[in-house]
Amino acid sequence: QRPEARDFIRQIVREDLASGKHRAIRTRFPPEPNGYLHIGHAKAICLDFGIAREFGGWCNLRLDDTNPGKEDPEFVEGIKEDVRWLGYGWHDLRHASDYFEVLYRAALKLIEDGKAYVDDLSPDQMREYRGTLTEPGRDSPYRGRSVAENLDLFRRMRAGEFPDGSKTLRAKIDMAAGNMNLRDPALYRIRKVPHQNTGDAWPIYPMYDFAHALSDAIEGITHSLCTLEFEDHRPLYDWCVDNVDLAGHPELWRPVAEAAGLDVQPSKPRQIEFSRLNLSYCITSKRKLAELVQRGLVDGWDDPRMNTLRGLRRRGFTPGGIRLLIERLGVSKQNSVIDYTLLENCIREDLDDHAPRRMAVLDPLRLVIANLPEDHEESLAFANHPKDEAQGARQVPFARELWIEREDFAEVPPKGFKRLVPGGEVRLRGVGIVKCEDVVKDAGGRVVELRGTLDPASRHGMPGADRKVKGTIHWVSARHAVAAEVRLYDRLFNVPAPDDESDGRSWIEHINPEAKRVVRGWVEPAAAQAAPETHFQFERLGYFVSDRLDHRPDAPVFNRAVTLRDTWAK
Ligand code: ATP
Ligand code: MG
Ligand code: MG
């Protein structure tokens, strides 16, 4: 199968190019700047930008800013940064608010054509008149207003003469339509709230369906990809595009485009829906993510426990790993919940390929190699990556006193224990075989130091170098290692469906108190010296990243992205 035909959307796009319906593919990614992007958005981004790129077209980044008061320029900057981080760039950066004047003229045109009217019903009354799935709606008493009266009232709405909510502009479609979205949907509402881009220029704001459909048409979008919940809105989307007919009415947009220097090439876009990405152990509602931040339950939108893109980034997840997940999941119209382990596995796979190896000890126990002189010091060359020679090597200092992981020693070993025991042998990674000769304890009986001897014949290049011992452990030189703050992260929720409140428990109650644990550890110098946001595998421990904000070579900070193996499997 050709790669570009691997799902039904790519199939449509390919056919549209082959048939000559479109000469170029144009898509858009339209987030509302009312929060930061989350893992769910990654799917839309990979589709919108990915398909445009694969077919040699382009994708716009459009901020859907039609809800003044809820939106913030801070989020616009964050969205731009996150899209770039995922590996994509946009053709044009647009705002739905760039089109407020065009949308206003389009609304006037619909009124002139007898296809829209000003309604005085209150929101509650409107709901009551709308009917139900089984009952047709009733016409509003204002539905019969003349074109002249509607034009006058709508112009006065625009002039700010009426209070919020007192009037609405509605499309005149069909109050008995089976599809509720066609029962005279609202096109404009009055809202005297300053807007982050247009200030107080507008006391009225277009509704989502109207603004979205026309923004697509204005930008010349060919394929408007969105999530399944908009399937029922598609007839309204088409109604807006067809009845405004931008291509046939350049007077609606040309003067505005010329004044603002906007490139407008109206199209008749096709809306195509796909299923949302839902991940277990995740919350993908911006409102709830905001609540976590506002209540101080996490340390901000970029807290590594958050499944926002910036949280995952800070955690050490990679754009390549996230893109791999989206590619693996494919595109369909089937809603499902994806196991979080699948995301973690994609991150592991990407980091396994790309992350250099380092040694770090997170729960240190001193090991003294008694048969080496006090001042013994050597520098050992270690490959950065076992499967990728191109990654080269680094020098690892080795000396008489080492830190090893406390759990790599057991005085009374459990069955099957392959690491260090009193009188036993283990291989020190890259050094040779060491035998534990003595166990030093403090007054309380706690093991504070091990003393051992290194078998000189087991060292690299020596005849006994290949001698078999059961286990291999990692280490760092106590004198050379750099003390590091290591943040051990885990899933933010301890149940697969935190959102499911059918058992009467709020999603907040499912927060995993163990999701962040901070320890002091020791890392080899080559790890400490890394630039912020460098990914490593700490051997035998997991994948880590130097924190992009807090890490300094003299005070290193590492975040655990993911353990080497799934620890959540049942
Ligand atoms: P919320 O309801 O939490 O505010 P949203 O879906 O309204 O989220 P938008 O900013 O409007 O967020 O989303 C921008 C685009 O991303 C839309 O096209 C939307 O369909 C898509 N998107 C949002 N969430 C997901 C998801 N979980 N999976 C796939 N696409 C998504
Ligand atoms: Mg939303
Ligand atoms: Mg939305």
TrEMBL record:
tRNA synthetases class I (E and Q) anti-codon binding domain: residues covered: 472-547
Q: Which GO terms describe its biological process?
A: glutaminyl-tRNA aminoacylation; glutamyl-tRNA aminoacylation
Catalysed reactions listed for this entry: tRNA(Gln) + L-glutamine + ATP = L-glutaminyl-tRNA(Gln) + AMP + diphosphate
Enumerate the SUPFAM superfamilies for this protein. Nucleotidylyl transferase (SSF52374), Ribosomal protein L25-like (SSF50715)
What InterPro entries does the record tag this protein with?
A: aa-tRNA-synth_I_CS, Gln-tRNA-synth, Gln/Glu-tRNA_Ligase, Gln_tRNA_ligase_bac, Glu/Gln-tRNA-synth, Glu/Gln-tRNA-synth_Ib_cat-dom, Glu/Gln-tRNA-synth_Ib_codon-bd, Glu_tRNA_lig_a-bdl
Q: Motif 'HIGH' region in this chain: where?
A: 31-41
Q: What is its main location?
A: cytoplasm
Give me the residues that bind L-glutamine, please.
D64, Y208
List, for all copies, the residue spans of the domain called Glutamyl/glutaminyl-tRNA synthetase class Ib anti-codon binding.
355-455
Q: Which GO terms describe its cellular component?
A: cytosol
Q: What are the alphabetically sorted keywords of the record?
A: Aminoacyl-tRNA synthetase, ATP-binding, Cytoplasm, Ligase, Nucleotide-binding, Protein biosynthesis
Enzyme Commission identifier(s) = 6.1.1.18
For this protein, the record's Pfam families field holds: tRNA-synt_1c, tRNA-synt_1c_C, tRNA-synt_1c_C2
Where in the cell does this protein reside? Cytoplasm
Instruction: Tell me the GO molecular function terms.
Output: ATP binding; glutamine-tRNA ligase activity
Q: How does it assemble?
A: Monomer.
Can you tell me which family this protein belongs to?
Belongs to the class-I aminoacyl-tRNA synthetase family.
Q: What is this protein called?
A: Glutamine--tRNA ligase
Taxonomic source organism: Fulvimonas soli
